Amino acid sequence: MGQGHRLRVRVRFPEADLMGWAHHTVYFVWFEMGRTELMRAYGLSYKEVVAQGYHLPVIEAHARYRKAAHYDQEVEVETVLYEVDRLTLKFRYRVWDPSTGALLAEGWTRHAVIDGAGRLRRLPAPVYDALCRWVVTDS
Amino acid sequence: MGQGHRLRVRVRFPEADLMGWAHHTVYFVWFEMGRTELMRAYGLSYKEVVAQGYHLPVIEAHARYRKAAHYDQEVEVETVLYEVDRLTLKFRYRVWDPSTGALLAEGWTRHAVIDGAGRLRRLPAPVYDALCRWVVTDS
Amino acid sequence: MGQGHRLRVRVRFPEADLMGWAHHTVYFVWFEMGRTELMRAYGLSYKEVVAQGYHLPVIEAHARYRKAAHYDQEVEVETVLYEVDRLTLKFRYRVWDPSTGALLAEGWTRHAVIDGAGRLRRLPAPVYDALCRWVVTDS
Amino acid sequence: MGQGHRLRVRVRFPEADLMGWAHHTVYFVWFEMGRTELMRAYGLSYKEVVAQGYHLPVIEAHARYRKAAHYDQEVEVETVLYEVDRLTLKFRYRVWDPSTGALLAEGWTRHAVIDGAGRLRRLPAPVYDALCRWVVTDS
């Protein structure tokens, strides 16, 4: 990657487990924060998406954990929008230790587009066109 | 599956999101509960594993979400040990709506074996032999 | 207490902290489960309350922690409805170690009655009358 | 208050409930972040406290909720060390909406000092003396 949106976040006390490591579910929360902030940076607040009656629920999620993130450690979450079609989006994530440059974890999520009633929807053409310009594939 | 260990769990209020649906990270908590209870049912308490200085951290996790689980809904988590070698274990999971039989989600996790210092370890032969007898592959 | 509704719950892995103890916020989740199950036992599902456009948000919460609950430990949450008036409810809770009878923690929560728009509401007379019969004060 | 340490934090998606409001337990996580950052600002990392074999577990916690914090809203957590003696500490917190100046919630936590074996300990005199200089009482 390298061109992705970058977000710093610190491992909270209740997010660390018996070993003092961030629990594996916390990375998915960081991924969610990463895509939320990426969208905000591009002018599309997810809160606004929800307010307009749309949702982008996760329909598939994957993570691979390489090194533990410890309690109170700062990590850097790098997010890219990787694929878009009219029905789904895919984001990719890498979690870095900014003090060493080590890769801690990587993952991806796939999202559907639904309305408030839970029906699958197509992305409106202007939104689809905008999203296509955010896509980073060569990482 | 069908031969897996089955656990009933109810969606808690803070686990439901704005839509009233269990957040996608909650399924990984259920997966963890599923493998913990599967191990307990086979006589191997994960708490005891930790007390003996071993850990089975998640090194890879995957989930595919098919239908939402709602606030206060009971779900059934089915867990099988799917693969074992001397260095890793893989569990598979399915989450069912027991009232309709609908499949809500499915996933898997891969685990390493480490000691308290975080070093990779091989499973002791007796533990490996025992685990091999739990494996369910044809599901 | 002693006359309260009793619920068994086990400390989940991600609920335990660095010390192996249930994080102090988890007790408030147990309290919430306790009052939800007390209400269900009396025939009043909180999900149904929400579906009818009402909410009982926590407006004040208190807990006192006496002994740690450990990872994988079963605890017993005892809940009573302690006070009701037309505008607020107060529940009290005790968390026990069922294996020793030791008191682990105690607390209370106070709740307002609001509608879906967030406006304060009075409890409807039949609901108020029903709740008054649940009140346990001499504990 | 007004003299307290101030921390900005945004309501995360899984922290919001069915109503779109930050769940009442989340405020206690913010309180914990507030005292952690207050301690860091004064040169005393809680991670370091733990590394030296001490802990400051919550023995009592209280919160009063005045206005809801919504999904994606930024809030400001104000923290003061309010009381110190050789055996316990008490922190006070206020949660503000920085866009309006409205008070959303307030609370306090009381902490014991224990060692790694869970025994109550007295604060070492130099630490006690340092903490006494942080105390803010007139708010």
Largest interchain contact: A-B, 20 and 20 residues
Please report the number of helical segments of chain A. Answer: 3
Global mean pLDDT of chain A = 93
Q: Categorize the overall geometry of chain A.
A: globular
CATH architecture of chain A: Roll
Largest beta-sheet details of chain A = 5 strands, antiparallel
Question: What topology, given as strand order, has the largest sheet of chain A?
Answer: 1-4-5-6-3
- Cα distance spanning the termini of chain A: 4 Å
CATH topology of chain A: Thiol Ester Dehydrase, Chain A
What portion of residues of chain A is helical?
10-25%
**CATH-wise, what's the superfamily of chain A?**
Hotdog Thioesterase
Beta-strand proportion of chain A: 35-45%
How would you classify the quaternary structure? homotetramer
Indicate the low-confidence ranges of chain A by residue numbers: none
Helix/strand-derived category of chain A reads: alpha+beta
Number of strands of chain A: 7
